[in-house]
């Protein structure tokens, strides 16, 4: 009889402990605003801070990565989030060649589960944008937090047909930054982000313009360049390319 009572109270104790765990989750907490070269390979996303969530919240880690020219910007948020379900989302908003935008978001329900360190698995962005084959066309190219201080005319890679100029305002998940982006692109609609306007808790507002390359002209060596329509028929991927998976990336 005595043993039975002990086992019952032990069971209640364990139940209480697991309820506490389920409702007051500890998550990594950080805000990342980084601009640089080769970020994908060198960047360590591990957060030093830990946050205790309110009842019913999950852990989240979300990041938006944009590459233009040789520069990459990474905007990331880790912390608690109110969400119903666990999920992992990877989206390629804009495909190579040239301007690339990808995002990753992970909502999870275990102690410190928002613990991704590396972002290299999201694609070698430098490889996408650093193609050596170039067209005769050039676009102002830059990537900056806030506004670009300069935007040199850089050669466009084969497969691009327009110059993109845009601004993204990113708010939410403790983020409030603006990014300016200019470069060559093959996008037909002015949508670096595709139709997606959120990355985890971050809300993204895009304002932009697109300009077609000038009409075909005769080059200095006398050879006529292919018409614009031919240039535009490069590898066009459906944009946005949406990959949704419940299995975390390894
Ligand atoms: C990232 O940083 C964390 C904490 O500082 C460290 O434990 C981990 O080994 C680092 N990862 C890499 C790949 O450098
Ligand atoms: C984006 O942010 C900038 C600077 O804070 C502001 O001037 C601009 O109006 C914002 N644009 C949108 C679409 O919210
Ligand atoms: C973001 O920052 C701008 C100033 O840079 C400010 O006007 C705006 O209210 C801020 N937005 C939020 C949501 O904090
Ligand atoms: C560039 O693209 C055009 C048309 O898309 C193609 O005909 C041409 O061979 C390409 N040039 C190179 C060097 O790949």
TrEMBL record:
Keywords: Cell membrane, Glycoprotein, Membrane, Signal. It is found in: Cell membrane. Its main location: membrane. It holds the Pfam family UPAR_LY6. One of its GO terms (biological process) is binding of sperm to zona pellucida. Residues 43-115, 136-212 form the UPAR/Ly6 domain. Residues 1-22 form the signal peptide. InterPro entries: Fert-Immune_med_protein, LY6_UPA_recep-like, Snake_toxin-like_sf. This is Testis expressed 101. It comes from Oryctolagus cuniculus. The gene is TEX101.
């Amino acid at each position: 009889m005595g043993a039975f009572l002990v086992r019952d109270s032990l069971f209640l104790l364990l139940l209480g402990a697991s309820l506490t765990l389920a409702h007051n989750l500890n998550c990594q907490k950080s805000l990342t605003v980084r601009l640089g070269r080769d970020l994908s390979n060198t960047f360590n996303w591990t957060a030093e801070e830990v946050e205790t969530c309110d009842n019913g919240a999950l852990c989240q880690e979300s990041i938006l990565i944009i590459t233009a020219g040789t520069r990459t910007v990474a905007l990331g948020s880790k912390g608690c989030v109110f969400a119903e379900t666990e999920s992992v989302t990877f989206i390629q908003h804009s495909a190579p060649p040239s301007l690339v935008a990808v995002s990753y978001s992970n909502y999870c329900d275990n102690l410190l589960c928002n613990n991704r360190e590396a972002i290299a698995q999201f694609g070698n962005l430098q490889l996408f944008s650093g193609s050596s084959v170039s067209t005769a066309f050039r676009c102002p190219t830059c990537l900056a937090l806030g506004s670009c201080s300069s935007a040199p005319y850089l050669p466009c890679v084969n497969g691009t047909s327009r110059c993109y100029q845009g601004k993204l305002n990113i708010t939410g998940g403790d983020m409030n930054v603006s990014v300016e982006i200019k470069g060559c692109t093959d996008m037909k609609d002015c949508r670096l982000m595709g139709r997606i306007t959120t990355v985890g808790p971050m809300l993204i507002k895009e304002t932009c313009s697109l300009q077609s390359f000038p009409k075909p002209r005769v080059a200095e060596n006398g050879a006529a360049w292919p018409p614009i329509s031919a240039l535009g028929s490069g590898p066009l991927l459906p944009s946005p390319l949406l990959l949704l998976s419940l299995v975390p990336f390894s």
